[in-house]
Amino acid sequence: MKAVIFKGVNDVKVESVPEPVIVEQSDAIVRVTTAAICGSDLHIYHGKIPGTLPGMTLGHEYVGIVEEVGPQVREVRKGDRVVGPFHVACGMCRSCRRGAYNQCERGGVLGYGIAFGNYAGSQAQFVRIPFADFNLRKIPKDVSDEKALFAGDILTTAYGAVRNSGLLPGETVAVIGAGPVGLMAVMSAFVLGASQVFSIDLVKERVEQAAALGAIPIPSKEMNAKAKINEVTGGQGVDVVIEAVGGTPTLKLAFELVRGGGRVSAVGITSEDKFEFPLMQSLVSDLTFRIGVANIHRDIDAVLALLQAGRIDPTTTVTHRLALEEAQEGYRLFDEKKAGKVLLKV
Amino acid sequence: MKAVIFKGVNDVKVESVPEPVIVEQSDAIVRVTTAAICGSDLHIYHGKIPGTLPGMTLGHEYVGIVEEVGPQVREVRKGDRVVGPFHVACGMCRSCRRGAYNQCERGGVLGYGIAFGNYAGSQAQFVRIPFADFNLRKIPKDVSDEKALFAGDILTTAYGAVRNSGLLPGETVAVIGAGPVGLMAVMSAFVLGASQVFSIDLVKERVEQAAALGAIPIPSKEMNAKAKINEVTGGQGVDVVIEAVGGTPTLKLAFELVRGGGRVSAVGITSEDKFEFPLMQSLVSDLTFRIGVANIHRDIDAVLALLQAGRIDPTTTVTHRLALEEAQEGYRLFDEKKAGKVLLKV
Amino acid sequence: MKAVIFKGVNDVKVESVPEPVIVEQSDAIVRVTTAAICGSDLHIYHGKIPGTLPGMTLGHEYVGIVEEVGPQVREVRKGDRVVGPFHVACGMCRSCRRGAYNQCERGGVLGYGIAFGNYAGSQAQFVRIPFADFNLRKIPKDVSDEKALFAGDILTTAYGAVRNSGLLPGETVAVIGAGPVGLMAVMSAFVLGASQVFSIDLVKERVEQAAALGAIPIPSKEMNAKAKINEVTGGQGVDVVIEAVGGTPTLKLAFELVRGGGRVSAVGITSEDKFEFPLMQSLVSDLTFRIGVANIHRDIDAVLALLQAGRIDPTTTVTHRLALEEAQEGYRLFDEKKAGKVLLKV
Amino acid sequence: MKAVIFKGVNDVKVESVPEPVIVEQSDAIVRVTTAAICGSDLHIYHGKIPGTLPGMTLGHEYVGIVEEVGPQVREVRKGDRVVGPFHVACGMCRSCRRGAYNQCERGGVLGYGIAFGNYAGSQAQFVRIPFADFNLRKIPKDVSDEKALFAGDILTTAYGAVRNSGLLPGETVAVIGAGPVGLMAVMSAFVLGASQVFSIDLVKERVEQAAALGAIPIPSKEMNAKAKINEVTGGQGVDVVIEAVGGTPTLKLAFELVRGGGRVSAVGITSEDKFEFPLMQSLVSDLTFRIGVANIHRDIDAVLALLQAGRIDPTTTVTHRLALEEAQEGYRLFDEKKAGKVLLKV
Description:
Distance between the termini of chain A: 11 Å
Helix content of chain A: 25-40%
CATH superfamily of the largest domain in chain A: Medium-chain alcohol dehydrogenases, catalytic domain
Number of strands of chain A: 18
Order of helices and strands of chain A: EEEHEEEHEEHEHHEHEHEHEHEEHEHEHE
CATH topology of the largest domain in chain A: Quinone Oxidoreductase, Chain A, domain 1
Low-confidence stretches of chain A: none
Oligomer: homotetramer
CATH class of the largest domain in chain A: Alpha Beta
Shape of chain A: globular
CATH architecture of the largest domain in chain A: Alpha-Beta Complex
Largest interface: A-D, 37 and 37 residues
Number of domains of chain A: 2
């Protein structure tokens, strides 16, 4: 079959590799119909993720059709249209039983190398999904492939970050960053009951996209975010900040925008080891900070239900739909920031 | 001043009465600009509420302008545009301190007679509001008088009933009854993260109003509610039922529609003493049932924030805007079900 | 092997039956070391449960040693000391994924007949446990067999009923009934942060057992429960009532004892179809009522951790330890209320 | 009257000052019967708190008898035995209405200088309490003065830190620091449902006190905390860490002890401006961090109820009971760490 193969730093190629087969009786093989390139794929592309050896198949975002299931699979069957989380979990271990699926003792990330379970990726014609009952979801009939794909990763990541903030209905939210994840955080904040949502980004066109979703746009090159938020909130600051950029400057900004008693939730796309946490300010202001990789299994059913009901549409972030064979071009465009979300049609 | 006076069963008149004055130092006098007739005013009109003597001023829904405040009032001042809950609470007693404001030891309902604190009502040019700091809210500048009025009673009642159900984002909701409260429950369910919301009513025009809000309409004269819900939910039933009619038949229906592990929340407009609770079914299906008068103080700030953000618009339920002097006609129309929500402009 | 066989109404015998074998690859066979007789076993004994045919093996409370596992079982292995819930669940279906394990689409109750999955019971030398990964828990090394056994049924049932009440730390609780389940509700209420716990029972000796656990005893033959509770709570009533008897009189009492805004949680051992629910009182007082079969999987890990830490000791309710061969005598004593909890040593 | 007066760095004296009088109609004057010296009083003593001028009366922990109330005070009356939070709140502003009493727009701290509302302190014969209805609590009759005193500050601080951690029943907790606040965190963790609680301190005698409360002692001079916790928890780490020392080394330790998906809650007695937050570790491990000054009003009623029920006893931390006149000696002993909790009997 065809698959997107990591060849080395800044080098991917579509090549022929053997098709995956059922290994465990709880496995399924999925024929991928659409895959996508994720921001975190670029970390591998840039050679930053230890344990990602040349020759491995990339990708962890996908939808497809179940091609074959092991004899212990009960929830899906051949022919089902399915989506699954970017990370796999067993559903039975101590971590899973307390809902910490992203800490699963048998877990891993598709196409993310040896340190993450050594699973072949989903940018391919077929992908093997372990613990299929727990890691595949049938896509509701009213949900398109493209919409469903986002439930397996960045939409549910953004949604989870908003949930992690403990947002209460009627509260105000500032989302820092208006890339795909930031825009989905805006959507999620509204679905979860936010009153006013501020969208902050250096790029004016991006916050305009957020404005179209109902957010108050703050193009931060030409407008002071703190001043604007203070003006609208009567000097209080927002109840919740979602940090969707990663890195020290935007984390710092998050703590400037949040009100006393508020919460900062970082979506988590960072590569920095440390952050100078404002301890004294947080002590006086009674703040909560949360950061972590997404816990997709916790929220994917809710997100699929919301997609089915038409309450969220993540496909507005798609800029390119390429054939799987064009993946090399897709990586290049995405890496050079000439593309938003890139889908690979298989 | 002019006020709507209860004269006896099915008899109200607009008459001249003395203006209210500051009694406690924590009181405020509000000049009413818009009042409304509530379904529960009809209980008095029908002579069903003990302790409602002829001569009393009716009404508990209002917005207005602060006319005067006692020396201990700090949160509002003369000239502020305000709204307040239909029931008053002190904010300091044991019940209030645990958030059970509707169980306040010093509480009562405006214009509801001796058994409810003996407060003069708000269908008048002026109304005295006790514990003004705790019972008045400044109306945000982007919220119209008419929208704000609903925050003091039926919108927040409906919103609270949905919150009381413990609705989780992505869950499905059936709202039984599509009168004003039912429609506001539909709005609230969406704001609080529902995926699909079913609106059930015998009157087709009413569920069509709900459909315009995004609900799946079930005109129950021509469509079997249980069959329709089972079809859409794959035979499961809904996660949450909001019962917004009152009375045994609709409560019974509620328990037919809810899934195992689900919740039934009654908005509470009932006059029946008992209900034959389906004990065995609930035991097997693990159900929760909640009924109670609204706890407006708990939710009014969130509701005002959501109104300000434009996320809810309750004014679509208004059918008549009359002058205060026309209150008699307003009561008649409302009682004969020839009107939806009736506002009285003062 | 030896097993306790249902022969007909009021008739059980220990007989030889074939040993169970692995059927599904996710099964385990457990060599039972201690089983127990549950109040709900008596419903079968009395011929009240449809689908319980003579010849079936009884019992759903057990601890034991894993004897054999299917090839897909990962969480336990031969030789592990284990306990499991009285009801089995798959852990993967829609109900399980939302935590409603007691509504599992593939679930059932061990030894409870055709209507409950047709599983052989655990009052036997060996029992087959389906979905072993999800339905067996390794017993922590500091927890005795006898303590662990209760985590699989009545302790976790009582604990779950208290959790279902939404008890907040510092709140007051009345537990109606001081049989084994009632006593465990008292223990659970304390562990979950209750301040004062009242134990109400007609039998004085029983409430004295509760008093030894720290409860305020109310022997209701000689003391008026409502008067006593009002005296202690300053006329308010309790925040939470746990109804652990079943049936109309005690449910009625529950609603007399609860404060406005409070919650009634029924443990659920009832055989009545209907209950005359006090609708008007509940409307005025803003009450929540919850009833349902226990959801053991949700809470068993927490309960085992609390047993391990020595924070609960359910074995004080044991009055008889018989050999499996004496099961007939055990059923008779328990049925005639001459025994508290009866254990069967295998 | 006699009062403890701040004279300058490391200098306090008991002097005669005028008695306080009712200023606002919602004020009360309390005749103090017991006051205490708090760790945070030492910050003033050391000259570290801006706006604390020589001549001011110190102290914010107290119990006493209501001497006089303003005409708008309804909840307490002359002769009532009362306790109150160290910080005062109005109960009506936007912050208070959302439960952020520690962010009250009219709030302050008794005896903490100009920057904290300029209120005279409680280490005196009399103290004026503003917003008395909201800032005084009647002490339940079964609760001694000494026990109640702790509800107004450090017990409720510790309790609140545990609640802020989102502790679930059955979870494990590590409390770093076994001074008075740390010991009260241990007590609180048990009351709130913890299974195992680890107490970590360099001083062996202190962790032995924690062991007497049921904790697993870790004298960290002679035992590696991480190794011990990993041994007991099967290598997982604890669900929750309460950091009750303040400062970088113990915060760093907190992040070493917590499991993936866990939470670190700092009690907040720090004077450091920044903390090098382990961003990458937290991202991978999905961690939550919370720090803030205590929100006493939120929890004081629950804590008083738990004291009344005998579920917590904070007086074990008292080492010295001095006369008010001996305050100078009390400060010296406490500052030189020759005393635990010092009470001043008035």
